[in-house]
Amino acid sequence: MKMSKTIRDSYKYYVKQYGKDLEYKVYKEICVSFNKKISGYIIEDAREFKMPARLGVIRIKKLKSNNIKKIDWKASKENNCKIYHLNFHTDENYYKWFWHKKNALFTNKNAYSFLPIRGNKRFLAKLLKENKVEFFE
Predict the structure, then answer these.
(1) How many other β-carbons are positioned within 10 Å of the β-carbon of residue 49?
(2) What pLDDT score does 136 carry?
C-alpha cells in the first residue's frame, strides 16, 4: 500500500500540534519556498542536504551505466526505428536523486522512499546537458 504525504497533510499536523495561527496559503508558500531553496542547493551547488532529526541525507548520485540503453521515444517515432539515448553529454553515466538512509535513526527505513518533483528532474537534466554541474559517486 502506497501512501504519499503532501503539504496539506503536514499542515494538518502543524495545526494539531500548534493551533491554527497560520493560514494554509501562507504555510504552503513557506514550504514551497524552502523546498525550492534546498533543491537549488542540491542541484546547482552539487551539495548534499542533511535532514534534521537524523532522517538521512538527500543528494544527486552519479552512477555508472549498466550498458542497458534507454529508448529515445521521440527520435524513434520520427525515424521509424529504435534509437537509444547514448548520454555522451554525461560520459555514459546517469544521475539520480538519492536518499541515503544508512545512518538515519528511524524504523522501517525500507518502507519510505523519496520522489523528486518532475521540475527538479528536468532542471537537473538541463544543467547536465549544458555541462554546468558535476556530481560525485
Answers:
(1) 14
(2) 64
